[in-house]
Write a structure and sequence with these properties.
This protein is mostly beta strands. It has 1 helix and 11 strands, in the order E-E-E-E-E-H-E-E-E-E-E-E. The longest helix has 8 residues. The chain is globular, with a radius of gyration of 16 Å.
Length: 153
Amino acid sequence: GFYNIVVTYDATSAANVPSIYINGVAQTVSTVSTVSGGSWLNVAGPLYVGYNGQATSPNGYMTFDGRYYRLQVYDRILTAAQAEELYNGWGVDGLMPVFDVRFLGVGGLQAYDGTTLGTSNQFVDEISGTTGAPASGTAAVGYADDRMAIGGD
């Protein structure tokens, strides 16, 4: 089935802990290791969702085991009430994502055949109306066992 997952994070400090909501319910977050470096806002590299960005062992290709339907990015920290409203399918007054992507299976996005998804496998940003892959690289990689990584190099 479908799950609504909301992760909200104050990126002003690497010491901050994210808040995670699954189907509108807050989850307990445990620290496994200390984050090194600065805020992700200071990183010039790509943003990956469901992929660690590493191509070599021991941690290479660690991907999310599931499928994505929609990805939204907001320019503020969401409250527990807002996460619950999003799960319930209600709009949140005054809250608009700055990036709202739906994934179109134009050329087999749902096939997960191990190929790199490119120009025939499109993203649609519902905010700007832009359709296409990231300008500078791979849109996504699909895998035969239903894993998927989204990002752009």
